[in-house]
Amino acid sequence: METKxxxxxxxxxxxxxxxxxxxxxxxxxxxxxxxxxxxxxxxxSSKKGEPDWMLEFRLQAFRHWQTMKEPKWGHVHVPDIxxxxxxxxxxxLAKKNENKEIDPELMKTFDKLGIPLExxxxxxxxAVDAIMDSVSVxxxxxxxxxEKGIIFCSIGDAIKNHPDLVREYLGSVVPYRDNFFAAxxxxxxxxxxxxxxxxxxxxxxxxxxxxxxxxxxTGQFERTLIIADDDAYVSYLEGCTAPMxxxxxxxxxxxxxxxKDNAEVKYSTVQxxxxxxxxxxxxxxxxVTKRGDLRGVNSKLSWTQVETGSAITWKYPSCVLRGDGSxxxxxxxxxxxNYQEADTGTKMIHMGKNxxxxxxxxxxSAGHSQNSYRGLVRATSNADNARNYSxxxxxxxxxxxxxxxxxxMDIHNxxxxxxxxxxxxxxxxxxxxxxxxxxxxxxxxxGLIVNGYAKDVLNKLPMEFxxxxxxxxxxxxxxxVG
Amino acid sequence: MTSExxxxxxxxxxxxxxxxxxxxxxNAVRDEAFNSFERLGFPSRKVERYKYxxxxxxxxxxxxxxxxxxxxxxxxxxxxxxxxxxxSTSLYFIVNDQFRQSxxxxxNLPEGIEVTSLAEYAKAHxxxxxxxxxxxxxxxEDGITALNTMLAQDGLLVHVKRNVVVDxxxxxxxxxxxxxxMMVNRRVLIxxxxxxxxxxxxxxxxxxxxxxxxxxxxxAYVGANASLDLYCMEETHYKNTRISNVYVExxxxxxxxxxxxxxxxxVTRNRLxxxxxxxxxxxxxxxxxxxxxxxxxxxxTLIDHQVSHCTSHELYKYVLNDKATGAFAGxxxxxxxxxxxxxxxxxxxxxxxxxxxMYTQPMLEIYADDVKCSHGSTxxxxxxxxxxxxxxxxxxxxxxxxxxxxxFINEVIDKIQLEPLRDRLHYLVEKRFxxxxxxxxxxxxxx
Lengths: 482, 447
Fold this sequence. Notes:
A: alpha/beta, six-stranded parallel beta barrel, B: alpha/beta, globular
């Protein structure tokens, strides 16, 4: 039996463990005044040099946002957010115009995060759009990709250079009326990535964006738009980190994905925003709307997410299976520790015929954290032969944490087959004993078992991410067993 | 005028009359319930637990209420013989919400069990009833419970004293009888003392082709080591609306077995809240629904594991045809410290037509780590291979479908502990699937 002292030793060990990405970068950042009103929306739009239609879109969203209330239904305790105490635009590239070079401090920051912005240093086969606060710092390999007709740039550049595409698709998957945070994002969104894969093109490299919040008292409102035209293929990765701060920082993003006939999109996220300290102080509020519209026949979309960071996560990457024969997948591992709270899951809306979706969700809770899966599977009356399989498992490490499952199934079709199963348990004593017996200490054994438990999901990640995710998983859980 | 307003006005106008025809214990909580109702109103679909049933519309029609407790001219013994045969039960009748004193000799039941009118018992034993009445069914949490508490004047009381074992099943038949559209607010209080053991079968029937709206609140206290079996069968008609809230509290090592069977109805909403308060308590909650036409059945359960070493099992199965709507929302809550909880929840549904709708929501909310909890839910159709196999052997498609649907629902019926009831239900369900069971057997009232 382990004594209380050894337990405390573990707890201490966790407490001492630092969030690896919690540093700040000392770079001149142009931050606008705090507060939110129509003038701020106009200011953001003018700073980005946007056309009138874009400003109109923002203003409409803002006016609608003012009529909305914050959603309270999540199984999370979102602290009261003072929307007037946040600055909605922070530009670390403000000096760029005087000096064409990127501030070396910024380059160093991304180097430190393992995201080198110089193409010769980058991992082969990955193009990066690096975004700090409200601005895209650099997009690598854009030229190389453009040769194939692929557009990979920041959304700000896309609005300027490809207005027709943006105008056609922006807000078509997540309209600004969708929810409170979607309306907020639509009003004040800053940068994010824009990807367009033309007909029949298979993107030769992984595309990725890396989001970093640096400035104090700012929020990040990125917007990503991915369009895969007929027969196209792209794999897209997203990573994120933030400095350690005592106050909460708001991150309200929108990701829209459009998948056309026979196209395939893979979207993978490793979310590692600052989760707050061991007492639940600070951390990022991650309130995100992600949705894919599978418009084409036989289109395919796969969401894979590894959620380890953020004080509060409120995120439901969803799929609208509109095209006949479309397929969607959702693989998720959500780890919560200390006082983190996560309410995450997916929505699969089956509208086309012969559509298929798979949901695999693994929740791991430790410390005093709360981890919820919330998912919706809907088969409309036209969705003949819709097929869904969902499985959500929760693992509890420690007696003070919580694991919850809230699946919703709305079936309006007699040919739909929908299955859902969920289990909640702690790590089996037998498995631990087996490992101990073979000389593997408890701590390591837990890591082994957890990694095995999450393997179904980790296997779906691109290789570069899988390694990082696996490391992250063991780091996040270190010291939780006693 | 909102549908709440007519009930608020009614209470304000008729408060004296309602109280005059009831007793002090029931009257004592009435005003508080009224205040709660005024505040809460009818739950809207935005209230998570009422997501699948629109309540306020159901209360809109102008229903009659028997506030003055006029005797309904019916002799249930002559008019109604809808009992489950061979059950050798003790039979009691509740006409609308009025308890009819049993004509059967009391010797049928052992000493130490009381099955009587709630209002009468409350007059004789006010302290006992006050101790239990409206304690589990809190008016400030649910608009329907508040409405029921504010309007209920009588109902059924069951009191099984310490260590009394009742072998025979007590059958209570709720008959809805009226010449006009009628609202009934029925109240049931069951107190099982330590070591008591009893089984109850509640059957709901509508004797008239009128629009009925029933709100029912059942409070059941299951003492340490006691055992309560509660079977509820609904066999009414499409004009009937039933909203039933069942609250159960279980003490140490107690057993509670609940089966809810819906064969014919209009709109039904069953809420079941079980609080497992003593270690070693165990509950089984099963339900089966066979619905067609425009039937709507919504089962909503909450199993609250408050202490360690408790076990809960849930199995709900639905077969939906035509434009029927089914909903199941089951929440299992395992509180902090409720270690060694074992809980399983299964909901399986067959949608047989394109227009049938099923909503299912099996939820787990767990705050303790050493637990084994699982839930599973499926919505689908009959197995094509099985159908083919049967057709190959000369069984018609219709018959093969019936056989498979019957086999599907059978799993729930087989969980019923009472053999005669089980056999009877096999028979009733089969008839139901064949569309033959439109009225109850042997009933003189329904023609």
